[in-house]
């Protein structure tokens, strides 16, 4: 009698678990396969190749995800999060992409088929000025290298569960798609204004819109929390410490900063501007220590 009861309970649990998994898979597929019909912004500015190359390799993290040669890269490959691929973005790989396709991907986080891109930080790139967006596209049109076979991402069960629960939001869900492009002249010339632009286009995807840090949305579970940058001053950091952390990946106490934070080759003016903006922010409570 007890054995029959236990078998019945186990069977019910398996059925419920199967229904839950099926529900998560169905809902996550609905999110991943949703067709985004948004008005693509028009880029009229002429791109600057030198600026575009610097944006791709040094300022905006494109090479960090897509590989130092832009031939594609595996960002994450573990169970249960799944396998997330950043595809090749060399000129050869993008030969069939129109400029509008590239604007849709970079500025809106949407692929050529109208589906939201996975783990693409387009919420940051949506803040690009029209001139910088044009420059990135201009450089990608010339980026050397062949076009390796494109591999598709395979989000795993945990990624899908978090996405279904709203804990992971795709960039296309975060962007105000009707927002017009800004012009470089509108951004301001003060160090704080220039630093804010750098933070908006390169830092906020991991550190949050207020740079308070915390769990990186959609990140590998092995990644540490992003640092609360608003506490650096309280923790005794000086601009020279910040520069060393950015350039060498080393904290003031000599510890190495953990991945996914990388060494960032910002120039002195960019470091000064970003530090000035961070120092202008109010210190946030209940945040992770600087990493």
Could you explain how this protein is built, in words?
The protein is built from twelve helices and three strands; from the N terminus they run αααββαααβαααααα. The protein has helices at 2-32, 49-59, 62-66, 99-108, 122-125, 130-140, 157-164, 171-174, 191-202, 204-207, 239-248, 268-280, and strands at residues 73-78, 82-86, 154-155. A hairpin with a 3-residue loop joins strand 1 (73-78) and strand 2 (82-86). Helix 1 crosses helix 7. The longest helix has 31 residues, at 2-32.
Which properties best describe this structure?
single chain, 12 helices, about 290 residues, mainly alpha
The counted number of beta strands is 3
- Strand and helix order: HHHEEHHHEHHHHHH
Low-confidence stretches: 8-12, 14-19, 287-291
Structural class of the secondary structure composition? mainly alpha
Measure the end-to-end span.
Answer: 57 Å
Largest sheet features:
3 strands, antiparallel
Assembly state: single chain
Largest sheet, spatial ordering of strands: 1-2-3
Average pLDDT works out at 89
* Shape, per Cα inertia axes: globular
Strand content: under 5%
How many alpha or pi helices? 12
Please estimate the helix content.
40-55%
Q: Tell me the Rg in angstroms.
A: 21 Å
């Amino acid at each position: 009698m007890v054995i029959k009861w236990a078998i019945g309970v186990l069977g019910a649990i398996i059925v419920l678990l199967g229904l839950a998994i099926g529900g998560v898979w169905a809902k996550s597929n609905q999110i991943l396969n949703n067709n985004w019909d948004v008005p693509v912004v028009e880029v009229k500015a002429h791109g600057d190749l030198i600026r575009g190359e610097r944006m791709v390799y040094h300022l905006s993290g494109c090479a960090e995800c897509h590989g130092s040669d832009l031939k594609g890269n595996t960002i994450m490959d573990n169970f249960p999060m799944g396998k997330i691929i950043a595809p090749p973005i060399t000129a050869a790989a993008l030969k069939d992409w129109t400029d509008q396709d590239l604007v849709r991907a970079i500025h809106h986080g949407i692929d050529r088929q109208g589906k939201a891109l996975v783990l693409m930080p387009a919420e940051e790139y949506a803040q690009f000025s029209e001139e910088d967006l044009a420059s990135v596209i201009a450089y990608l049109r010339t980026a050397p290298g062949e076009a390796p076979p494109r591999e598709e991402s395979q989000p795993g069960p945990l990624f899908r569960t978090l996405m279904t629960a709203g804990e992971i939001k795709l960039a296309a869900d975060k962007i105000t798609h009707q927002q017009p492009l800004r012009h470089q002249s509108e951004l301001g010339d003060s160090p704080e204004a220039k630093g804010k632009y750098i933070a908006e286009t390169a830092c906020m995807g991991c550190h949050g819109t207020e740079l308070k840090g915390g769990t990186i949305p959609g990140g590998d579970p092995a990644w540490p929390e992003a640092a609360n940058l608003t506490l650096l001053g309280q923790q005794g950091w000086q601009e020279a410490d910040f520069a060393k952390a950015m350039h060498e990946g080393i904290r003031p106490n000599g510890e190495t900063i953990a991945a996914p934070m990388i060494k960032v080759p910002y120039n002195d003016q960019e470091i000064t501007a970003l530090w000035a903006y961070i120092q202008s922010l109010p210190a946030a409570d209940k945040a992770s220590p600087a990493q």
